[in-house]
Amino acid sequence: MKRRSRVRHQGAPIGDRSLIGSPGRSRSKWVGTGEGRMNSRTSADSDRGTLEMRSTLPARDYYAAEVFDLEKERIFYRNWFCVGREEQVPAPGDFMVRDVVDENVLVVRDDAETLRAFYNVCRHRGTRLCEGEGSAGKALSCPYHAWTYSLDGRLIATPNVPEMVGFDRTRLGLNAVALQTWEGFIFVNLAPEPGPLDRQLGDWAGYARYHLGRLRTAHRFAYDVAANWKILHENYNECLHCPRVHPELVKVIPVYRRGTMAEPDGIWGNRLVEGATSFTRTGRSRLPALPDLTEEERGRYNGMTIFPNLILDCFPDNVLYTILWPGAPERTNVTCGLLVESSTLGQPDFDPGDIVEFHDLVNRQDWGICERAQKGQRSRGYRQGVYPPQDEYVHEFDQHYLRERGRGPETPG
């Protein structure tokens, strides 16, 4: 996941491919809550003032069960959590089931073609209603006792259950989960009274010309990574490791050879190598450029992270989205999707294989080094590390994370 440019925390834009996208090769930007926005700075800023050593999070924050439990309640269950794309549930009755850590959520398109989300549990005895993805047809039926719900969540049938005092079907519909969409992405929020998604997204105007909502998925990837979700984010937000871990990547995005995340010219995004128009080993592909990009954007990479679990890597002819699914303190499932202009999907010569191969290569390099970093967190020889100036976006991520977790930002150094 390494396209870096500047990252953004959920609700606030952060950098240029750093916090916001681990796979972003230009270090992306965070998008965090409006209040949690990171300043857009390049590595050159660090050279203009006094350099400070900053501390990493304590090692136990990456493996302790009690820390992960706190993250569930204060981060994953309170923030808008990306669960997929609208195109995955295109027609009435189509559904997909997703885990938001320990909670199982059902997303379904109803008869009015409205997307809805519910806790995926029957109100009778707690049985899960659906598994995976598919079509429920006209209604949602429990596999245990056949209690049946309309696609908008109303209880409409309870076979062999007589009328009883106090039994009110209108009060036994599925429990709803808040759902909102943005640019084709589906977000759910388990909080009782969640704030608006826009507040979490922050300023994403710089990405408008990519028209993410009209792009379609050409390929999906899935990974099981034996590392804490924060290590994946932090890896995405720095490029000191790029020359060592990604020898192929630094040939395509030359600024990464210096271990920095952003160009010294201060222009948004990172340049691809001269003549490159795509994210492949050669910098070329058979796909046309996304039509509304400027000439400058057709030669650059931009990345964005929407805290806590969505990363976007934007290239001239494709966008890679990465969804992190924290499953345990030391395990994260990852799904990625390659987005391209919808009109190219049906072309007889459509073949994104070289792009897919390169994204997958860089991702696997990232996951491998993240797993090695995870193993070291439990060592008696390591309790806490340090951040040099080039890790400024990682430090910003950590500070945003600590605020979201519910304690004040730690003092640098």
- The ordered H/E elements are EEHEEEEEEEEEEHEHHHEEEEEHHEH
Round the Cα radius of gyration to an integer and report it: 22 Å
If classified by CATH, what would the architecture of the largest domain be? Alpha-Beta Complex
Strand content: 25-35%
Q: What is the number of independent domains?
A: 2
Chain-averaged pLDDT: 87
CATH 4th-level superfamily of the largest domain: Naphthalene 1,2-dioxygenase Alpha Subunit, Chain A, domain 1
Terminal Cα separation, in Å? 28 Å
State the low-pLDDT regions, or none: 2-48, 408-413
Q: SS-based structural class?
A: alpha+beta
Care to count the β-strands? 19
What do we call the CATH topology of the largest domain? Answer: Naphthalene 1,2-dioxygenase Alpha Subunit, Chain A, domain 1
Helix content percent band: 10-25%
CATH class of the largest domain: Alpha Beta
Cα shape? globular
In this structure, how is the largest beta sheet organized? Answer: 7 strands, mixed
Explain what you see.
The protein is α+β, with helices and mostly antiparallel strands. The protein folds into two domains: 1-80 and 194-413, Naphthalene 1,2-dioxygenase Alpha Subunit, Chain A, domain 1 (Alpha-Beta Complex); 83-193, 3-layer Sandwich (Rieske Iron-sulfur Protein). The chain has eight helices and 19 strands. It has helices at 65-76, 197-201, 229-236, 242-245, 249-252, 342-345, 353-376, 392-405; strands spanning 29-31, 54-58, 81-85, 94-100, 103-109, 115-119, 133-135, 139-141, 148-150, 155-157, 176-182, 185-189, 215-225, 270-271, 300-306, 310-314, 319-328, 331-341, 384-387. The strands form four sheets. Strands 1, 13, 14, 15, 16, 17 and 18 form a seven-stranded mixed sheet that branches. It has a seven-stranded antiparallel sheet with strand order 3-12-11-6-5-4-7, with no helix packed on it. Strand 16 (310-314) and strand 17 (319-328) form a beta hairpin. The longest helix has 24 residues, at 353-376. The radius of gyration is 22 Å and the shape is globular.
